[in-house]
Amino acid sequence: MTHNVGISGNIQLTPGWQITGTTSYDFNAKQFSYTMFNITRNLHCWTLTGSMVPFGPYKTYSFRIGVNSSMLQDLKYEKQGGRGGAQNNVTWY
Question: In Å, how far are 8, 27, 32, 35, 46 from 11, measured between CA atoms?
Fold first, then answer.
């Protein structure tokens, strides 16, 4: 049996800026088990998005700026890094 508590939130600073976050605390391990932050900026024709998991085994970040038009959805720049995904050394049972 595990004991966790989680919280998530969304703050819209202005009509174009939005910040979201989520975190979970594991009482058995006495540490945060997962924390993630996202920031989004709507630039009318473009959208800028940043995301990060600041600590833990899935520590990652990503950055994306892309066109909002569905016809031009492939026009974008993306950057990501960290230890998440297939690059980590997690043993799955």
Answer: 10, 27, 22, 16, 20
pTM: 0.71
CA distance 81 to 30: 27
Which residue shows structure tokens 């016809």? 71
Question: Which tokens is 71 given?
Answer: 């016809």
- Residue 83 — very low, low, confident or very high, per pLDDT cuts 50/70/90? low
What are the structure tokens assigned to 13, written together?
């600073």
Rounded to 5°, angle at Cα 12 from 81 and 45: 70
